[in-house]
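Researcher: Go.
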Amino acid sequence: TTSTSYVTDPDMPSATITPSSTSNKILIHAMIGMQHDASGQIENTIYRSISGGATTDLSASNTYGLAFSGGSSQQWDNTSIHWVDSPSTTSAVTYTWYSRSETGVSVTPIHGNCGISMILMEIAV
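Model: Structure:
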């Protein structure tokens, strides 16, 4: 993709959890190997979708802790996101990785021979 808007695809990390209490938190650990083809920054975030409800960008458009910058040549790197969320629901919640190109550079979301993972843990409050 070269999109400057957040996009995802079926191979991006995604996982679903159903909290047992509306006051509980969800700990998210996600990792992906990414490649970009020129200078610029790749920004990443996690979107939360609640069954029967809205989809929310958890970063609220503040992605600077969730990005990697490249030099003037092709580069790949493992990128991770760690988040604690308060979904305030007992419905199924799906978390999905989204990425965008800051300057329209070409981005390969899943670099060959790199793993992807997403781990969700419920934290009782």
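Model: The CA atoms of residues 64 and 124 lie 29 Å apart.
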